Amino acid sequence: MTELIFLCQQSGNGSGFSKAQTGQSGPLPLLSELEQFKVKRVYSSSIFEYEKAAERISSHLNCEKSITESLNTEDTVWGEESLISIQRRVVEFAEGVCSGSEGSFLVVSPVIPIKLLVVWICGMPIDLVFRLRVDSGSMSVLRFFEFSAELRCLNVHPEVISP
To answer: How confident is the model at residue 72 (pLDDT cuts 50, 70, 90)?
Structure first.
């Protein structure tokens, strides 16, 4: 089983996470909660603010960081790229990470890739993507097995995560 732990980060509001959540200062509620997953690698969008958050998180969790264009959506959702095209890209990313790998991987992501992957896993029509709520700073966990996938949790906030 492979687990993808998505941390939602909204663009345009600084880092998308509070300073405490990413370890810039004060307590580390999000980071300390993530330790229970034994994350092997942190992935992020190539957009600067996502990379910056992934760097702080991977440093705290003492694991490698990888940057991917597959999660970029800044100018695509309302631009030339369709939701189906973005979804295809995000599904290929998830399948690539999970192919031959087991364990937990953290993904610092904008909201749209998370929603599109959830819609795909649940077999929902793609137009329902805008009916899902995923807050900035929340965590969503998707599990991938050899022949199936499941949504473990969606839009969970650090204060409700228990080891």
So the answer is: confident
